[in-house]
Specification:
The protein is α+β, with helices and mostly antiparallel strands and 131 residues long. The chain has a single domain, classed as Muramoyl-pentapeptide Carboxypeptidase, domain 2 (2-Layer Sandwich), CATH 3.30.1380.10. The chain has a five-stranded mixed β-sheet with strand order 1-2-4-3-5, covered by helices on one side. Helix 3 crosses helix 5. The chain starts with 9 loop residues before the first helix and ends with a strand.
Length: 131
Amino acid sequence: MNGPTPHLSWAEIAASDGTPYPLQWRSSRALVLAWEFEAIREACGLPIRVTSCYRTGVTNVATGGATTSQHLFGRALDLVPPMGISYPEFYQIVLTRAESHAIIRGVGRNLRNFHVHMDTRPGDVLFLWDE
């Protein structure tokens, strides 16, 4: 398999500068994140484009990411709504998954680039925000 799950490749979750997703997190963090991605993809019934996952410190600064971004720890995905699903509908699909399944603990709306952020940060609280 060329990724952690059937519809998510290692290339999609690598840093934008080409740095691979860290080996030490592949059997733990990547799998948890990827199975949540698969559940959201199944709920949509369509392919989903990933715009960001793992970030090195350099790529995080270049993208304007938060200093404590879950992307730095390989626990976050930024997703573009699939063709045929509106941005509000897609956000609701991700939010519903997060509210019904405690593994997703961060959901954000990026209203400039129209992507939805999801992450599997440690803890018990669901964090929601708009950028």
